[in-house]
Amino acid sequence: MGKFNSQISVGVVCVILGFMLVNQFKTLMNQDNTLNLKGNNSSDITVEIDQYKKEKASLEGKIDELQKKVKNYEDSAASKSASTKNLLDELDKTRILTGETDVKGPGIVIYINPSNKIFGNNLGDNAADKITDKHLVYLVNELRFAGAEAISINDIRIVSRTGIRTAGNYILINDEKISPSNRITIQAIGDEKLLYSAMSFPEVFSDFKDLADIKFEKQDNISINKYNKSYEFEYAKPVKD
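Structure (tokenized):
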């Protein structure tokens, strides 16, 4: 019993360290996004960016290592009692729902290949001439209605807090830029027959006419990476009875 309690204690410590690393990682990302370029030449800026990238990779590695340790402690705790196992099963479902874990499974992959006119140097300011945030939001909604359990766009995990919006000549997804002039790949895990059937309706891609060539296919083993940002709630609080 004492050994089990010590394992749980170490697991709690690992969780706390994980949160600390996530917060440090977020602070680093904020610094990376708000670099002051005044007074620095391009060489200094490049060195500074490379340093941030190395620190980011190091923190990501530490977070992954701690998460693996926490998972091992959870598996050990789950083997002790049925109630603990049920609790951890619910925790795993919550992690999938919030995108906090890598997932894999059957589903479909959609390839959006912009038409030739979009590959030119001048994309134009007219939203009717290019793929926009509205096209991607519409497809994400259609996939969710068809029962998709996990979705990614260009390997960016789509969760409940994901924002998708057009910004100039780019589309921002979770604050990451993707170009509407390059191929966009959407992955969705779920019942592949239902997802494929939902995407087969002609109306689904009617707004993409003359903008892109659309192809989609079933796949038995799709991998989608976890959401790479931390959850913070400043205003929403749980209601207590």
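Helices lie at 2-33, 42-78, 82-98, 133-145, 192-199. The chain has five helices and eight strands.
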